Amino acid sequence: MGYPINTNFDDFAFTLGKSGENGFISSNRNKNDDDVFAISINLQTFPLQIECVVKFKMDSWNDNVDLKILPAARIFLIDNSNNKTIQSTVADKNGKFKLTIPYLSQYKIKVESGSDVVSQLVSLDISKFRNPDNQFEIVVVKNDY
Fold first, then answer.
1. Which pLDDT score is estimated for 75?
2. Is the Cβ–Cβ distance between 98 and 51 less than 8 Å?
3. Which residues contact 138 (CB under 8 A, 6 or more apart)?
4. Would you give the distance in Å from CA 78 to the centre of its chain?
5. How far is it, in rounded angstroms, from Cα 126 to Cα 50?
6. What is the model's pTM?
């Protein structure tokens, strides 16, 4: 199980409830007395479906340039470990799209647009802990100079 469930102390009698997310473990990690500790396991599970919206802004000297929806952008999910495209999709007219993340890894997303917004790579950070909404916003910045 790894830390913090399994430590260098005497950890034993591990049990989980029906949901697999909560349970108990006995350990002498607290002053060498055996105690029962409640545990919560909320690790991300895969495959994971995420919902995204892609936007862009022109990078200029004016800081208050609004973000704009980037409709019909082509999206590529790329695995950083082997630089291979795992999945591709197209954003709808509202810049929305969904991706299914197949396994725990590090990813980047390539955004291509038919408009004058150039192709961009952005990092995608998936937390190892569950996030109930799995909503992401990707912002592409185009330099105006």
1. 94
2. yes
3. 52, 53, 54, 55, 109, 111, 122
4. 13
5. 10
6. 0.67
